[in-house]
UniProtKB/TrEMBL annotation, chain A:
Subcellular location: Cytoplasm
Post-translational modification: C-terminal thiocarboxylation occurs in 2 steps, it is first acyl-adenylated (-COAMP) via the hesA/moeB/thiF part of the MOCS3/UBA4 homolog, then thiocarboxylated (-COSH) via the rhodanese domain of the MOCS3/UBA4 homolog.
Coiled coil: none
Family as reported in the entry's similarity comment: Belongs to the URM1 family.
Stated name of the protein: Ubiquitin-related modifier 1 homolog
Chain's role: Acts as a sulfur carrier required for 2-thiolation of mcm(5)S(2)U at tRNA wobble positions of cytosolic tRNA(Lys), tRNA(Glu) and tRNA(Gln). Serves as sulfur donor in tRNA 2-thiolation reaction by being thiocarboxylated (-COSH) at its C-terminus by the MOCS3/UBA4 homolog. The sulfur is then transferred to tRNA to form 2-thiolation of mcm(5)S(2)U. Also acts as a ubiquitin-like protein (UBL) that is covalently conjugated via an isopeptide bond to lysine residues of target proteins.
Domain of life per record: Eukaryota
Cross-link (Glycyl lysine isopeptide (Gly-Lys) (interchain with K-? in acceptor proteins)): G129
Species of provenance: Chondrus crispus
Protein's GO biological process: protein urmylation; tRNA thio-modification; tRNA wobble uridine modification
Positions of modified residues (1-thioglycine): G129
Pathway(s) this gene product operates in, as recorded in its UniProt entry: tRNA modification; 5-methoxycarbonylmethyl-2-thiouridine-tRNA biosynthesis
Region (Disordered), start-end ranges: 1-20
Cellular component aspect of the GO annotation: cytosol
UniProtKB/TrEMBL annotation, chain B:
Organism, scientific name: Chondrus crispus
Gene Ontology MF, one: ATP binding
CDD domains xref list: CTU1-like (cd01713)
Pfam families: ATP_bind_3 (PF01171), zn-ribbon_14 (PF16503)
EC annotation from Swiss-Prot or TrEMBL: 2.7.7.-
Protein name, UniProt field: Cytoplasmic tRNA 2-thiolation protein 1
Length: 129, 340
């Protein structure tokens, strides 16, 4: 698990929170509280989110992994054409995910536990080029 | 879990490369991605010094990255190419308008001359008008024939020696699968060629033939290259969609599957060695427009006639299953992605 603090510098808006994360132990207990993250959409997925390229969201506290986040996004944020984003509970193959500009395949994919301030990009490769 | 780049060892890895599974940082990813395309270009002799190359530009991800990378490599390795952007305006309101806007941005950003050829000027019909006559079924038949010829005509106007298209490894593998499912053996054996064009006026080259779609999209994302991503409003293209989905599922299990499919098709030759080459039709020129064809009139002229004399709806009906193979190979049978 990466410390949230190691990601925060790229998100200046959140840096004031830094002093309130005194140590790793404290952060473990904080993990039960909800976190605000930024979602980005590209490659045509914007159309599923009322053309929003990015959204700041705060999922409920029990949503902590990317896997759960995906079903939460499916159930709460998508307005149309769910099949472009998921197939069942899984992300549709051909949709790329980057966590703070890192391929989620290097971050344990659905098991990645996100931290407040994370920037998570979903980009479809499925549209014509 | 922070992983370091397997190439430089110092930067944080950002991409897991599907070909190799290697974890690399952004800078090393750019370098490997560009070098591999350079290797495809040199090992397949895609270009000669002094070539005028028309880049088929749709405003989508592949052609946007292709224009960017070809400009870059042309300078870096001194290919000595004259590059042009060539776009086809099918006349599809709300679809092509937006994507052409993306191409106009590429023109400015990459400082490349742009030529747009359009269906109305070439054929007297826009796709919107064609669809209003024949409906949405099989309109891809018309669009595929028209686009292929439009690209050629634009390239001739540009005095180009070659057309470069953005077909990527996923497109190639998908085409292999489709030709396999159709039992189209002649096409199966040549659809993975890096240089094609026996039925076009000019050679078509595919610098991205070994480049994964995932990496093209990652590259565009990191480099902030802006492209247009929307399906054609007239073309759900379900059959191709199934092949695509199947490949994406395969790739999720075994990322090398895409290259494996391409490499397999490369091993095929048609006609079989030692047999007579009887299957390939003799190429002539269209009596009316001079375009390359194996018939008296080229497919575009036949289809334009059918629109002008009001029989297009019949062409449409006949090109449904059963007649597909002869009538409208160019896109129903011709499994080359409709892509500039
Ligand atoms: Zn590196
Ligand atoms: Zn003709």
């Amino acid at each position: 698990m990466t410390l949230a603090a190691s990601r925060l510098p790229s998100h200046p808006a959140l840096s004031p929170r830094l002093p309130h994360l005194p140590n790793l132990a404290q952060r473990q207990t904080n993990m039960t509280s909800s976190k605000t993250i930024v979602l980005e959409f590209g490659g045509g997925l914007e159309a599923l989110f009322s053309d929003a390229k990015s959204l700041s969201v705060t999922p409920p506290a029990d949503i902590q992994s990317l896997g759960k986040l995906i079903t939460w996004v499916r159930d709460h944020l998508i307005t149309a054409r769910h099949d472009m984003f998921v197939s069942g509970d899984a992300l549709r193959p051909g949709v790329l995910v980057l966590v703070n500009d890192v391929d989620w395949e290097l971050e344990d994919t659905v098991n990645y536990r996100f931290a407040g301030g994370d920037r998570i990009a979903f980009i479809s490769t499925l549209h014509g080029g | 879990m922070v992983r370091n780049c397997s190439a430089c060892g110092t930067q944080r890895a950002s991409v897991k490369r599907p070909k190799t599974g290697a974890a690399v940082c952004k800078e090393c990813f750019y370098q490997q991605f560009e070098t591999e395309i350079h290797d495809t270009i040199t090992s397949h002799s895609l270009f000669n010094r002094g070539d005028r190359v028309a880049i088929g530009a749709s405003g989508g991800k592949d052609s946007t990255v292709l224009a960017y990378v070809l400009s870059l490599l042309n300078k870096r390795h001194d290919y000595g190419l004259d590059l042009f952007l060539l776009s086809v305006d099918e006349g599809i309101t709300g679809y092509r308008d937006d994507s052409l806007e993306a191409v106009h941005k590429n023109k400015v950003e990459y400082d490349l001359p742009l030529l747009v050829v359009d269906y109305r000027t070439l054929y007297g019909w826009t796709m919107d008008e064609i669809v209003s006559v024949i409906g949405k079924k099989s309109n891809c038949t018309f669009c595929g024939v028209f686009r292929r010829q439009a690209l050629d005509r634009g390239a001739v106007q540009l005095k180009a020696d070659k057309v470069a298209t953005g077909h990527n490894a996923d497109d190639m593998a998908e085409t292999v699968l489709l030709n396999f499912l159709r039992g189209d053996f002649p096409r199966l054996s040549r659809c993975v060629d890096a240089v094609t064009g026996r039925d076009s006026a000019l050679p078509r080259v595919k610098p991205f033939k070994y480049t994964y779609e995932k990496e093209i999209v990652m590259y565009a994302y990191f480099k902030k290259l802006h492209y247009f991503a929307t399906e054609c409003i007239y073309s759900p293209n379900a059959y191709r969609g199934y092949a695509r989905q199947f490949l994406k599922d395969l790739e999720a299990v075994r990322p090398s599957a895409i290259l494996d499919v391409i490499r397999s098709a490369e091993q095929l030759t048609f006609p079989p060695p030692g047999s007579k080459d009887t299957a390939m039709p003799v190429q002539k020129t269209c009596e009316r427009c001079g375009y390359i064809t194996s018939q008296r009139l080229c497919k575009a002229c036949v289809l334009t006639d059918s629109l002008n004399n009001g029989t297009a709806a019949d062409v449409n009906r006949k090109s449904r299953p059963g007649r597909v193979k002869n009538q409208s190979e160019a896109q129903v049978g011709h499994a080359v992605k409709a892509k500039e």
